[in-house]
């Protein structure tokens, strides 16, 4: 049938609109309630980041202060190891003597030879010439230890052998010593025996070609010539060691390990044996 005229229909419409508003308000309130925690979370994250940044800045400041303090501390000086040059520079020059050579030979062969063999290397004092007391030039020293040189020089006729053998540390020192021989040698022929710029075959041919009275050189090359039989000990009478001379680093011949080793091998190649047989005498210049 028709609508009920007694029903106040406009009141129902108002109620539905009110209900709609209430539902919308509740919905919007819920959304606001949901959005509030998100805002709080962002604020919390910003706070944490700011705190971390502050902490890192503080750590940087502390580490920088620590570095500054360390840099301000006085650095400890390292004790430099003394070189052989430093040691020799502070020691007063002392002329060599026969016991110095004896001790050097005994020390070098201590772990290379038996006790009996080492005893055989020891020389009597009669095997040595008088040593240089640091007042002699080479010529004046040779005149003292070899007063009859003019006669010995004339009598020498053997090839591939010398009467006087002067042993030094280097090629440069060899040239210096040859120049210092001028006042002593007279008409004697002098040969330089070192490896620098000179082939050993050339030196062998030179020694075989004519009579040579004095040989000056390094122990390494002299030893090599003896091994090849380019130089013999047949006419040898004097071995002069350039013992007291020092180079720019204040090293003597025996202070250079390589030269010392070559010298010991040279002495052991037959020179010590001829000394014990009283055929050769050793002098320390």
From TrEMBL:
It comes from Austrofundulus limnaeus (Annual killifish). SUPFAM superfamilies: P-loop containing nucleoside triphosphate hydrolases. Residues 56-66 have a biased composition (Polar residues). Pfam families: CMS1. Residues 8-34 have a biased composition (Basic and acidic residues). The gene is cmss1. Residues 1-92 are annotated as: Disordered. This is Protein CMSS1 isoform X2. It comes from the Eukaryota. InterPro entries: Cms1, P-loop_NTPase. GO terms for cellular component: 90S preribosome; nucleus.
